[in-house]
Amino acid sequence: RSEGFISATSLNHLQNDLYVIKPKNIPKARMISASDLSKVQLKKTHTTNDASAPKLTGFVGDDQVREYQSKVLDINLEEWVHLIEEHTFPTKFYPLTTEDAAAFVATFEHFDREKNSNFPEELKAKLEEIRKRLDQAIEDMKDGDECVFVKTSSRSAKDTGIYQQRFREVYRQFLKQQPHRGDNDKLIALLLAGTEMLKMRSANDVIQNFAISERVCQDMNLAMSNSDRFKEHFIIRKWVDMTPDMEFRAFYCNGKLNAMGQYNHLAFYPHLGEMRTQIQERILRFFYDHIRDKLEPQFKSYVIDFALTGKDLDRIWVIELNPFLPTTDGGLFSWKDEQDLLEHGPFQFRIRDHYATGTKAMISTDWREVFDTELVD
């Protein structure tokens, strides 16, 4: 997959007072289709705050709005992937038109406004048209593999996985593999299950996820508000298996990495303490040997995500770049209290060295319902 695993903080950052789908009477092994739309129930969620969402308030004037939006668009995947393509996942681009973008905005707004999933016929027809166009591109990238990862030019639809019918069963299976099944084990199982939901096996899966994603809606709105530089895509990437403990977020500014921490920072992984020095040295060496100079002519500051994969963790990948802005999740670092550190250093590498307290209270109601699921062996 191309983006970070569903982060622990994103469990609490799903949707802003909207109505989300609760599938009913839909076969387990697939997401909902257009013909299933009349079978779903909607449940109102409480208000939450997605730290990665585009900023909508706090600007003095139009110039500030434009500057902020430009910084977000400047870091879209199309802008950097060709510079380091040998160090990130194989990627194909399939263009999204402004009409496509408007359709995904309309589908999400329909859920929010009408509190039902009965899309107008013309909207269903538009989604089917997009699906047909995307189908061959998905199959080409799969090339015999089971699945691919698909996102927009900026973010993925990772806010929708929990509403797949099979999510709870996948979560239960991962939880059975955990040693203690306490809150930390439940969180790790949620992360693993959420990642599994990101596997896209067909264009139909992609359309179904994008159509109900607030994240996609937000990003399409931002892109359409900058029509002079609209160049959104479906980003189709080869699926690479990773574990959520081996993903790390780092902060680059003023010519150097100033900070790095575990991406899924609410989860405690005891073995990371033993591997700390090795991980730090390997990522820093990889970054300065292969990445910095290729990005530096164009990018002066960014937040960069890495993953270690392979039997011996012998492969390091750049997952993505994010804007160097407080709207990018700081993880174990605080934009408010530690911005000078993030901009100037000295370098710090942080991992969680103890169990987080109050984990359950940090996740949203819908995720908490899964968290509380009784596990029957």
Structure description:
The strands form three sheets. A five-stranded mixed beta sheet has the order 9-8-6-7-10, sandwiched between helices. A three-stranded antiparallel beta sheet has the order 3-5-4, covered by helices on one side. Strands 1-2 form a two-stranded antiparallel ribbon. The longest helix has 26 residues, at 270-295. It contains ten helices and ten strands. It has 377 residues and is of the alpha+beta class. 37% of the residues lie in helices and 15% in strands.
Beta strand count: 10
Structural class: alpha+beta
First CA to last CA: what distance? 31 Å
Oligomer: single chain
N to C succession of SSEs: EEHEHHEHHHHEEEHEEHEH
Question: Helix coverage percent of residues?
Answer: 25-40%
Low-confidence stretches: 1-49, 55-60
Average pLDDT confidence is 84
Helix count equals 10
* Major sheet size, sense and barrel closure: 5 strands, mixed
Strand residue content:
15-25%
What's the layout of helices and strands?
Blueprint: E1 19-22, E2 41-44, H1 62-74, E3 91-95, H2 98-114, H3 121-142, E4 148-151, H4 167-176, H5 183-196, H6 203-211, H7 214-224, E5 233-238, E6 247-253, E7 256-262, H8 270-295, E8 301-309, E9 315-322, H9 335-344, E10 348-350, H10 365-371
Parallel strand pairs: 7-10
Antiparallel strand pairs: 1-2, 3-5, 4-5, 6-7, 6-8, 8-9
Helix pairs in contact: 2-3, 2-7, 3-6, 4-5
